[in-house]
Design a protein that fits this description.
171 residues, single chain, mainly alpha
Length: 171
């Protein structure tokens, strides 16, 4: 458990070596999924006064689906449309690195504190986005951080459209 906790802390500290480590560690998939679930639970607890228990459950399920979709899109965009010459990756590498980039989202549990919700949620979102760019840059072996930002942005927009369509269909 210490290894898992240390990985979460290192991911939140934006430790580039951690992202390389989980990219290469094929056994880290459960840990990556665990980070996504913990981050989602933290967000749900932080927002429980607005969404209640149903919001918590829907948030966890939605986060897992969103994580997979965004990782798949990032893989596809990053390896097929915007690769660098040295880019070599598989979907598992993206799932693991992007999963750990959710580590900063654990602070969203503190959004339950009245008056701090939007500040904590905003800070967590920015921090997670920075972690995601680092995760993508490492997993896709990019030299260019700008390219990683572009891949993340394109993937995020497409993922948002897909998740919105799913939400409309389920409603």
């Amino acid at each position: 458990m210490t290894s898992f906790k240390n990985r979460i802390i290192r991911a939140a500290k934006l430790d580039v070596d951690l992202y390389e480590e989980v990219e290469a560690d094929e056994t880290a998939m459960r840990q990556a999924m665990g980070v996504v679930v913990l981050s989602s639970v933290a967000a749900g607890i932080g927002a429980i006064t607005r969404g209640g228990f149903n919001g918590l459950i829907i948030g966890i399920i939605g986060a897992l689906i969103s994580w997979y979709i965004w990782a798949f899109l990032t893989y596809w965009i990053g390896t097929k449309f915007l690769p660098e010459p040295q880019t070599e990756a598989d979907i598992g590498q993206l799932l693991r690195t992007i999963g750990f980039s959710s580590s900063p989202g654990l602070i969203r549990i503190f959004a339950i504190i009245p008056g701090l919700n939007w500040i904590i949620s905003f800070a967590a979102s920015i921090w997670m986005l920075i972690a995601m760019v680092i995760a993508v840059r490492q997993a896709l072996d990019y030299n260019s951080t700008g390219r990683a930002v572009g891949v993340c942005a394109i993937g995020w927009i497409i993922q948002l459209l897909i998740m919105s369509a799913i939400f409309v269909m389920v409603r």
